[in-house]
Design a protein that fits this description.
heterodimer, A: alpha+beta, 5-stranded antiparallel sheet, B: mainly alpha, MetI-like fold, 11 helices
Chain lengths: ~350, ~220
């Protein structure tokens, strides 16, 4: 079970240039809005045509610009779940699912209904369903067509917060029961981390090599990685001999193995500690600060601080229980050395 | 009172509407899928009869089918057939004049239709024919009905092109609108007023039907 995908497509000033090779796993496609994530899925499904490239699903060539192969979407056997459920409004839930099933379907439409908690809603029309029910019906319908790959295009974006988690569990269950490649497009870093095995990052339409989610989230290497995985503090940095200088923070640190091409340094807002709690001291960098602004979140405070010798502020997200204690101590924040991300 | 003009108008408009229903839907489907300059040009060509004076349409039509035209001569000499000055001649005129109404109304409905539903159908393996007949058409029903009513109503009232290709022959090519013109020209106000009232009644009935349908539309089919 595998998907090989190389796509080049121009539209307007934008150029999509994607290449990846996925196995029997969940691959997330991440990138800012307009970076071509949805377009990639649509090219694989065959509803958009790449200018050049090659798409091979489980050994079947779906598209090959050199060999002039371009299978119509009907023959590709790709399952694509859109942002909105795209149920046919003139048909009942049962009809929607039944018409997607091939003639000698292994599982009946009624079994899909039951599996997705829709067994009492089979005769309803789509506009009589809730948002979550519609999305479950869309998943059931996609599975009923017996696709060889599942693709989810921001499946949670149209749902309320409380439904997102339920829907995510539903998709996790669907993925677990599916044999083959699964592609997920999402903005939400938590959902990407929980659901996927590997990730490809699209920056201005260009894909980077597939990485495990741990590599991307815990060991980001580029400015784009850090931004995409939600890093709030990124500062220009430069490497000179064995020293790294971060002028914005007024910080210079020795680092013998820093790569030459470092342009930025990043630190996650949640990874900083109050100075008094950082032990042993040699594993931390300490900054004296002045508080600029405090934002209260549900479980944390997000404090904007200005380092003593720096020119740029940074965000520090502190648990409320910890926050209560820092007022009694000197205004010093500790950054774990190993949490400092060196980026190009 | 001879009701032939009413009967003739109804059959002409009905047949012309059936023709534009099929051709208008197909043209709208085809053009809605195009893009760029080709779409712009084709769209303009298909819409132009709407803004041309009906007399210009009639004149162009005569150049094509009158007994003096190339086609007219062939039909006359080989099949002894004359396409002008017959009751059905008006069908050509009415079809051309009403086509843009149907085409534009249906095209707007197709373009407003959620394209993702079509794409979803394709990725689910449904044939394009099935998607067209069972998903696109049923969900664009109100747009199509609006086009039918507009075309039919416009067809009933068509005068300019009709009078040029079919003329006014009482009991043969007379329609409601050419009859009104005829009685007015010979100064018989009585029959003219009668046919004016017939016209008003029909227009009123058509618009009432449209409004009634528009009101009913939001009520959805209840689940069994």
């Amino acid at each position: 079970m595998s998907l090989y995908c190389r796509i080049e497509k121009h539209f307007g000033p934008f150029r999509l240039d994607v290449e990846f090779d996925a196995g029997d796993e969940v691959v997330s496609v991440m990138g800012a809005s307009g970076s071509g994530k949805s377009m990639t899925l649509r090219c694989i499904a065959g509803i958009e045509k790449p200018d050049a490239g090659r798409i091979v699903l489980n050994g079947r060539t779906l598209f090959d610009s050199e060999k002039k192969i371009n299978l119509p979407p009907q023959l590709r056997r790709t399952g694509l779940l859109f942002q909105d459920p795209a149920l046919f409004p003139n048909m009942t839930v049962l009809e929607n699912i039944r018409l997607a099933a091939p003639r000698n379907a292994k599982v009946t439409a009624e079994q899909y209904l039951e599996s997705y908690g829709l067994d009492l809603l089979g005769n309803r029309y789509p506009d009589q369903l809730s948002g979550g029910q519609k999305q479950r019906c869309a998943i059931a319908r996609m599975l009923a067509s017996e696709p060889e790959i599942l693709m989810f295009d921001e499946p949670f974006s149209a749902l309320d917060t409380h439904l997102r988690w339920q829907m995510e569990r539903e998709i996790a269950r669907t993925i677990a029961g599916f044999q083959g490649t699964v592609l997920l497009v999402s903005h939400n870093r938590d959902e990407v981390f929980r659901l996927s095995d590997r990730v490809t990052v699209l920056t201005d339409g260009k894909s980077e090599e597939l990485r495990t989610k741990q590599d991307l989230f815990f060991r980001p290497v580029s400015y784009a990685d850090a931004l995409l995985t939600g890093c709030k503090n990124i500062f220009p940095a430069s490497v000179r001999e064995s020293e790294i200088e971060i002028p914005g923070l007024g910080l210079t640190l020795t680092c013998s193995d820093a790569p030459e091409n470092v342009r930025y340094a990043g630190i996650r807002a949640k990874r900083m500690l109050p100075g008094y709690a950082a032990q042993p001291a040699e594993e931390y960098l300490f900054l004296n600060y002045r508080v600029l602004n405090i934002t209260e979140s549900i479980f944390t405070y997000i404090v904007e601080i200005l380092p003593e010798n720096g020119t740029k502020s940074l965000y520090w997200e502190i648990d409320k229980s910890v926050y209560a204690g820092i007022k009694d101590h000197a205004a010093s924040v500790a950054i774990p050395r190993k949490e400092l991300m060196l980026l190009h | 009172m001879d009701l032939f003009p009413l009967f003739n108008s109804l059959r002409i408009s009905l047949i012309a509407t059936l023709i534009t229903l099929v051709t208008g839907i197909l043209a709208a489907y085809f053009v809605a899928r195009l893009s760029g300059a080709v779409k712009g040009i084709l769209d303009t060509l298909l819409t132009i009869p709407m803004v041309l004076p009906p007399t210009v349409v009639g004149f162009l039509l005569l150049m094509l089918i009158s007994p003096k035209s190339f086609l007219g001569q062939i039909l006359k000499s080989y099949f002894d057939l004359t396409l002008t000055m017959n009751w059905y001649s008006a069908i050509f005129a009415v079809t051309i004049v009403t086509f843009p109404l149907m085409y534009r109304t249906v095209r707007a409905a197709f373009e407003a239709f959620d394209q993702n539903l079509l794409y979803a159908g394709q990725t689910l393996g449904l044939s394009d024919r099935f998607i067209f007949l069972k998903i696109l058409l049923p969900n664009c029903k109100s747009g199509i009905i609006a086009g039918v009513v507009l075309a039919f109503a416009r067809g009933l009232g068509e005068y300019g092109a009709t009078s040029m290709v079919a003329g006014y022959i009482a009991g043969r090519t007379a329609t409601v609108s050419t009859t009104v013109a005829y009685y007015w020209q010979i100064g018989l106000d009585g029959p003219a007023v009668f046919w004016v009232i017939v016209n008003l009644v029909i227009s009123f009935a058509v618009m009432l039907t449209v409004n009634f349908y528009e009101k009913r539309r939001p009520v959805r089919k209840e689940a069994a």
